[in-house]
């Protein structure tokens, strides 16, 4: 068991290292360098030389990559070209804001989606299942910015319950922030609920058709007890990795939703960094998103190992 967990951690570490190498190589492959991309028509003379010296671009690429990775492990991503501040200072508060938004969406969506998926799977092809599946398909096909725009129109303009643009101030309490983040959380939750519900429904249907569930029915075990003791635990195992992938996919949705609501998170910071051609900042945020993606999938793998002893036996 310990060896299997260590292998999972090793593979996750290798994946992150490989992604960091790809990102660094992609920036190196761009025409010119970080400074010429940032300075554009001013990329000449002392200004260019000073930027090259500050970024260490006169050193071999392998040394710069080693220093970048070493610094990133310690939370030091270098300096932003545009803001002229340490990158870890810029992303600190933004990371907390994005974590708050994504965390609330996941806490709201996962239990609700699992419950709806179980209800739909148990009542397959009945009115409840058909209505839930239809709503999920609709939510999955509508882009986030369309859902966000519709919610802004209804709840911010017509009903005036929530602000259309997120206003975050330092020192705000959670209750003060809640009205400002309610609509972004709802947009992200809608897509998460749709995807997870569909996966959970399919998993429940597969388990309901299994031999041991049929045997439990023949023995006279009550249906509610079958669902509680056999269907739900076994349906969760194959759904865990897909749920993790869906949560990791949330990172892409966060960027769009943050931009629509002007939410001060990592997504809006990354878009601004791309606009400013601040490549060191873009690299840092992309690496953070990659670590979150790999970390979520690692947690799902470990949870599946804990729940299902068959997976532990396969690893030996």
Q: How would you portray this structure in words?
A:
The protein is an all-alpha fold and 316 residues long. It has a domain at 93-275: MetI-like (MetI-like fold, Orthogonal Bundle), CATH 1.10.3720. It has helices at residues 2-29, 34-39, 45-55, 61-73, 87-122, 127-141, 144-158, 174-208, 211-218, 223-261, 266-276, 279-307, 309-315. Helix 10 runs antiparallel to helix 12 (279-307). It is globular, with a radius of gyration of 24 Å.
Layout of SSEs?
Blueprint: H1 2-29, H2 34-39, H3 45-55, H4 61-73, H5 87-122, H6 127-141, H7 144-158, H8 174-208, H9 211-218, H10 223-261, H11 266-276, H12 279-307, H13 309-315
Helix pairs in contact: 1-12, 5-6, 5-8, 5-10, 6-8, 7-8, 7-10, 8-10, 9-10, 10-11, 10-12, 11-12, 12-13
Number of helices: 13
Shape: globular
What series of H and E elements makes up the topology?
HHHHHHHHHHHHH
- Which stretches of 5+ consecutive residues score pLDDT under 50? none
- The CA-CA distance between the termini, in Å, is 8 Å
Tell me the CATH superfamily of the domain at 93-275: MetI-like
How many strands appear in the DSSP assignment? 0
Quickly give the structural class: mainly alpha
Q: What percent of residues are in strands?
A: under 5%
The overall pLDDT, averaged over residues, is: 81
Q: Based on the coordinates given, report the CATH architecture of the domain at 93-275.
A: Orthogonal Bundle
Largest sheet, if any?
Answer: none
Topology-level CATH name of the domain at 93-275: MetI-like fold
Mind telling me the CATH class of the domain at 93-275?
Mainly Alpha
Q: Round the Cα radius of gyration to an integer and report it.
A: 24 Å
Helix coverage percent:
over 70%
């Amino acid at each position: 068991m310990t060896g299997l967990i260590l292998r999972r951690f090793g593979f996750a570490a290798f994946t992150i290292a490989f992604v960091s190498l790809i990102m660094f190589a992609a920036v190196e492959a761009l025409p010119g360098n970080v400074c010429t991309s940032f300075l554009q028509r001013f990329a000449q003379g002392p200004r260019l030389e000073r930027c090259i010296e500050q970024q260490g671009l006169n050193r071999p690429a392998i040394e710069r990559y080693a220093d970048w990775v070493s610094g990133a492990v310690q939370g030091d991503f270098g300096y932003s070209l545009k803001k002229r501040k340490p990158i870890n200072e810029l992303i600190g508060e933004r990371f907390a804001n994005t974590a708050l938004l994504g965390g609330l969406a996941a806490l709201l969506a996962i239990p609700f989606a699992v419950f709806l998926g179980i209800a739909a799977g148990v009542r397959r092809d009945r009115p409840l299942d058909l209505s839930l599946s239809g709503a999920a398909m609709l939510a999955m096909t509508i882009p986030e910015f369309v859902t966000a725009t519709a919610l802004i129109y209804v709840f911010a303009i017509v009903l005036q319950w929530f602000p259309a643009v997120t206003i975050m101030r330092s020192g705000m309490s959670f209750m003060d922030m809640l009205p400002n983040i309610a609509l972004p959380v709802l947009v992200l939750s809608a897509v998460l609920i749709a995807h997870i519900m569909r996966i959970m429904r399919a998993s429940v249907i597969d388990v309901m058709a299994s031999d041991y569930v049929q045997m439990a029915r023949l023995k006279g075990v009550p249906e509610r007890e079958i669902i509680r003791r056999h269907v739900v635990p076994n349906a969760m195992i194959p759904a865990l990795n897909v749920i993790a992938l869906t949560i990791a996919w949330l990172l892409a949705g966060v960027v769009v939703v943050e931009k629509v609501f002007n939410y001060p998170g990592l997504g809006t910071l990354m878009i601004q960094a791309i606009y400013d051609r601040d490549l060191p900042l873009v690299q840092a945020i992309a690496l953070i998103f990659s670590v979150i993606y790999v970390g979520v999938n690692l947690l799902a793998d470990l949870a599946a190992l804990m729940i299902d002893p068959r997976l532990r036996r396969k690893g030996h």
